[in-house]
Design the sequence.
């Protein structure tokens, strides 16, 4: 498979000069196009920083970072992001919320006004595909937490990004809703073949969804382990109760440290 | 809305107001309070009717100076609020000055304004403006500052400019704050206009009351107070209605079903 993202001994820090706090130290990873990779680790280990780095929102301190072979110097524009909080705009309906990225990125930005109906249709179709048919014209406060999160993921996907970045997207949901959304995400990724970066501290979530799981150490974050999940796809929720699955989760857990 | 709810919404305040006047009237009659200290409502309303022509005349002056000052404050407050909310450095620089300026009692500024612009409506308009723009600036700036950083990341990663983020997220987000502050500002503008009229003007309800007081026509003074209260409630109600019209989404509790 083609390599999409490459980090070669990349470090990153917040703040300037002497007061700088190192968030990430000498991280080297390589991600293939269409790969689903997860980053797990203790809180504050720099998982989210890694996301900011790859998306071009924060420059690296050292090392080389390339996406599609080109060094990253600014916002990539081909990423879609979703976070723990859905962060939907309360004055817009679900469909209008999903349209937001298209109002920013070209070429949609200049076409949107003329072809608004067609674009709204596209947003509705995407919402349908994650099980939100019938809720496209609802406002965020009329949606449950899980529905809001589905909408947020649709918003991250509408401009057909190459990389979908999810920062603990299901962290605020109850266990059943969370597992439902795992399946939604699994299907979306299988359908669209998008490269997904999932930051989480739910190890079961990481193993169920990802092809590769990276374990980071506490701050400054380093990759302490790269673990390939060789469970066959498509994966069913039942797989989470099998021995091989449990073994991987257990192994990852021991790497993260004990109490 | 159900008739029961309607009764509570409009009936309760009406009953309370009427009750207040009844008690007031009773106290005045029972203790035979002199007219020059506290006139009874019946005297006040009699004065209100008798002098309706000058009262209406002066009310319009007060109303228009208030609205003119309020309008300037709205535009100025919105622009300055967006500017201050946009730039951290601008915020740091301007904010202390604003707070300092706002803590000056505006009555103290009126003589200066009269010195510059003479007696008349301009000092009243300017006082109304000066007293009412501050809450608008603060609220708009706060609204802009509360944009979620994650949402900003989502948009910045797409290559959105600061202006894009402001237009799509920041400014709409600050709308409820803005309209909320208008309710405060309109009452303040009204206070400013009347204060200025009382200190030095040739027209307006404030001036009317001042003249009545000088000639011991206390019922007219109280008639003026009642007119001010009614106008104040009216102005507030109008801005509140505008607020609801434009930021219905922020009042989801009522609109949910």
Sequence:
């Amino acid at each position: 498979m083609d390599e999409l993202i490459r980090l070669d001994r990349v470090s990153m820090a917040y703040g300037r000069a002497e007061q700088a706090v190192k968030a990430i130290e000498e991280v080297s990873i390589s991600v293939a196009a269409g790969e689903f990779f997860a980053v797990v680790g203790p809180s504050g280990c720099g998982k989210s920083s890694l996301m900011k780095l790859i998306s071009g929102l924060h420059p690296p301190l050292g090392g080389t970072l390339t996406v599609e072979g080109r060094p990253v110097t600014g916002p990539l524009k081909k990423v879609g992001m979703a976070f723990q909080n859905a962060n939907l705009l309360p004055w817009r309906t679900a469909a209008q919320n999903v349209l937001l990225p298209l109002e920013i990125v070209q070429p949609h930005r200049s076409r949107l006004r003329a072809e608004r109906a067609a674009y709204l249709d596209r947003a509705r179709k995407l919402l349908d595909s994650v099980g939100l048919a019938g809720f496209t014209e609802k406002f965020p406060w009329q949606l449950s937490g899980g529905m809001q999160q589905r909408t947020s993921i649709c918003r991250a996907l509408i401009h057909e990004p190459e990389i979908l970045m999810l920062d603990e997207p299901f962290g605020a949901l109850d266990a059943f809703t969370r597992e439902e959304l795992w399946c939604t995400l699994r299907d979306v990724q299988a359908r669209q073949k998008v490269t997904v970066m999932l930051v989480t501290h739910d190890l079961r979530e990481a193993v169920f969804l990802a092809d590769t799981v990276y374990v980071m150490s506490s701050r400054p974050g380093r990759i302490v382990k790269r673990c390939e999940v060789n469970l066959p796809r498509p994966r069913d929720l039942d797989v989470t109760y099998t021995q091989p699955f449990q073994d991987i989760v257990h192994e990852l857990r021991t790497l993260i440290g004990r109490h | 809305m159900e008739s029961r709810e309607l009764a509570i919404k409009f009936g309760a305040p009406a009953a309370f107001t009427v009750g207040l006047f009844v008690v007031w009237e009773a106290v005045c009659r029972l203790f035979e309070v002199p007219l020059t200290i506290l006139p009874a409502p019946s005297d006040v309303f009699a004065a209100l009717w008798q002098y309706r022509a000058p009262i209406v005349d002066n009310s319009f002056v007060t109303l228009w100076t208030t609205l003119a000052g309020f309008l300037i404050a709205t535009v100025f407050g919105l622009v300055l609020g967006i500017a201050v909310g946009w730039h951290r450095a601008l915020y740091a620089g301007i904010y202390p000055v604003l707070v300092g300026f706002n803590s000056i009692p505006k009555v103290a500024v009126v003589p200066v304004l009269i010195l510059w612009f003479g007696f008349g409506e301009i000092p009243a308009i300017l006082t109304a403006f000066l007293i009412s723009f501050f809450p608008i600036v603060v609220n708009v700036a706060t609204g802009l500052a509360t944009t979620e950083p994650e949402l900003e990341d989502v948009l910045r990663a797409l290559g959105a400019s600061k202006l894009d983020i402001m237009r799509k997220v920041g400014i709409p987000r600050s709308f409820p704050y803005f309209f909320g502050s208008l309710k405060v500002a309109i009452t303040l503008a009204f206070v400013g206009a009347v204060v200025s009229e009382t200190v030095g003007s040739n027209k307006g309800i404030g001036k009317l009351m001042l003249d009545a007081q000088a000639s011991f026509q206390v019922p007219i003074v109280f008639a003026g107070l009642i007119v001010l209260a009614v106008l104040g409630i009216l102005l507030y109600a109008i801005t509140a209605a505008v607020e609801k019209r434009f930021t219905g989404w922020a009042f989801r509790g009522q609109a949910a079903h």
